[in-house]
Amino acid sequence: MDAQDETQRYSPLVAAGVFLGLGLGGFFDGILLHQILQWHHMLSSIRPAITVPELELNMVGDGLFEAGTWLMTIVGVVLLWQAGKRNHVPWSSRVFFGSILVGAGTFNLVEGLIDHQILGIHHVKPGANEFIWDVGFLVVGAILVIIGWLFVRAGQEAIAK
To answer: Membrane spanning segments where (predicted)?
Structure first.
């Protein structure tokens, strides 16, 4: 079996892990940064939550954001369920958890570039050094993608031997 065929055998497991990682990465962001630390809300840079109506608008934005991450997680669970029913999909913890890291890192990169940089609707930690916090968010995302990809490759190579 050539490398292309081997990669395709892992595709259902990788897809499930990436979607779960997107959802879990979003949940981590929403729960930790939006709710627990309250560093920002979804629209806090364009509609600061200084009045009750603005706070309510930001809460709706946060809720829509969380609904999107919930949908990504559900897609990941469905894909994982489907992958589990396929006999030809090799099960590898390294491939699966590496894929989750790729998804979580991709979440950081996409959300960080779109919401923080391009649209500017919020920043990781507004105020002093907000650009550094935003860049750090992107760097963490890139590191997660790289580590996840290395785990996926190691898992594929371990089973191919």
So the answer is: 12-37, 63-83, 95-119, 131-152
